[in-house]
Design goal:
Rossmann fold; 3 domains; alpha/beta; globular; six-stranded parallel sheet; about 15% strand
């Protein structure tokens, strides 16, 4: 636990970690609020398609006007100022930038910028979990071959869950399940950007809707984001999806060890060693007391009877039999915590979670009956939601990854609830994201289950 001391040493030596960031959305803006206050870090450049908006967000989180007035990236690197641009390649191509943060949220853009950053010797912190779900195993392998770090973003739930899993295994425990909490009901899979407000207003008091992107929020509601994030967890830890994806069983934080164990032992899981997301809502629409809607967890077991005894003695949230125990974190601070990933990459040359295999995938699944000729609108939209499936099943069936289900036209009718296939859409085989995904599919034809 010495990252802060290492940062202070870099600050004292006049060699702060020089950072380039693409994207000034919610996650990116949260990091902006903290990086200015962190000794040993210097955000040299910020790229966003709307530079004026990026400057407004910097000002909105406390940056003095003079600090965002750098005339060029070279000027920023010689001072403590930050250069704002609409061209991320200006940051990637500069040899003095050590760490590149990809926070655009668009999978195709994320893959393109990540590959460029790796090629220019930059450590990459991939906030863009959509890009990681689409091609993370390949990007991580390319980073390792280039001698740089490719990392999940600390503060986001996948990295925190991966840390739970690593903690458990380092302590000699077996991981039964790992995941997070969310608000879920089966009817939410049909939610659209138009109907999402009906759900959000049930538990969020949103006074100004102009600051909310309904399509983005809808991806959290309709189950897509859970599938994306649990795919990132599986591919970073070696855990596997359940055969039918996530079940979203209702559970409080104190019931995790009873619910997230195999059905054969009274739980809700298909088997051990999987990801699961627990719901803060019962199937009849009632709130679960002491829910884990913003948190993360891991359920463990030990072959040692003595350890199982300790689970009970030390109130480790055991199940009713005392066989299993749970560890949870009640919340996550998203971009406010991202500095941990930046520091780990630059100072320790370690990721805070990274893809090691291709065990899980997220496939486009019809929200309603779709008709030939319709154009899909991707994550959080009106046509499809993202379902977690085992990667070997996705490859065998030729399923269409959710990250490529945007702005493509259907070749045929699709029934509600049906998983789409590559052959169902008119995709551009020459598109960069498609080529990278196809390369990854060829490379990881057989998932490496650990």
């Amino acid at each position: 636990m010495n990252l802060s001391f290492m940062l202070k040493e870099r600050a004292a030596a006049g060699r702060p970690i020089r950072i380039g960031q693409a994207g000034a959305g919610k996650f990116g803006t949260m990091f902006l609020s903290q990086v200015r206050l962190t000794p040993g870090m210097h955000l040299a450049g910020l790229a966003d398609l709307m530079p004026d908006r990026a400057r407004e967000r910097l000002s909105g989180v406390g940056w003095p006007k003079e600090q965002i007035a750098a005339a060029s990236i070279g000027d920023a690197l010689k001072t403590d100022r930050t250069f704002v641009t609409d061209n991320a390649m200006v940051l990637i191509e500069n040899p003095d930038i050590e760490v590149f943060i990809e926070a655009t949220g668009d999978p195709a853009t994320g893959i393109k910028l990540c590959q460029a950053a790796i090629a220019h010797g930059k450590h990459v912190v991939m906030v863009n979990v959509e890009a990681d779900a689409l091609a993370g195993p390949l990007l991580a392998r390319k980073a390792r071959e280039a001698g740089v770090v490719y990392s999940l973003a600390w503060g986001d739930q996948p990295a925190l869950i991966a840390e739970h899993v690593d903690w458990a295994r380092t302590c000699g425990f077996k991981v039964v399940a790992a995941g997070k909490g969310t608000r879920y009901h089966p009817s939410y899979h049909q939610s659209t950007p138009d109907t999402v407000w009906d759900i959000l207003t049930q538990y969020l008091q949103i006074k100004d809707r102009s600051h909310i992107n309904p399509k983005m929020f809808n991806s959290f509601i309709d189950g897509t984001k859970s599938g994306i994030e649990m795919t990132a967890v599986c591919n970073a830890t070696g855990l596997v999806p359940q055969s039918n994806g996530l079940g979203f069983p209702p559970a409080s934080r104190f019931e995790l060890a009873d619910v997230c164990k195999p059905k054969s032992e009274g739980g809700a899981l298909e088997k051990k060693g999987v990801t699961e997301v627990v719901s803060s809502l019962t199937r009849d629409g009632k709130d679960v007391p002491h829910h884990l809607a913003m948190g993360t967890y891991v359920v463990i077991e030990s072959d040692s009877p003595y350890a199982a005894q300790c689970f009970v003695e030390y109130n480790c949230l055991p199940d009713k039999t005392g066989t299993y125990a749970a560890l949870y974190r009640p919340t996550h601070m998203i971009g406010l915590e991202l500095g941990v990933s930046v520091a780990c990459a630059a100072l320790r040359k370690e990721p805070t979670g990274t893809s090691i295999c291709f065990n899980s995938d997220v496939v486009a699944t019809a929200k309603r009956a779709l008709r030939k000729g319709e154009v899909l609108d991707g994550e959080g939209g009106f046509s499809v939601w993202g379902k977690q499936v085992p990667a070997d099943v996705s490859l065998k069936e030729g399923y269409l990854p959710l990250g490529l289900a945007h702005d493509v036209r259907l070749n045929c009718d699709i029934a509600e609830g049906q998983a789409l296939k590559w052959s169902d859409v008119a995709y551009d085989a020459a598109a960069d994201a498609v080529k990278v995904r196809r390369e990854m599919e060829a490379m990881f034809a057989r998932p490496n289950v650990r």
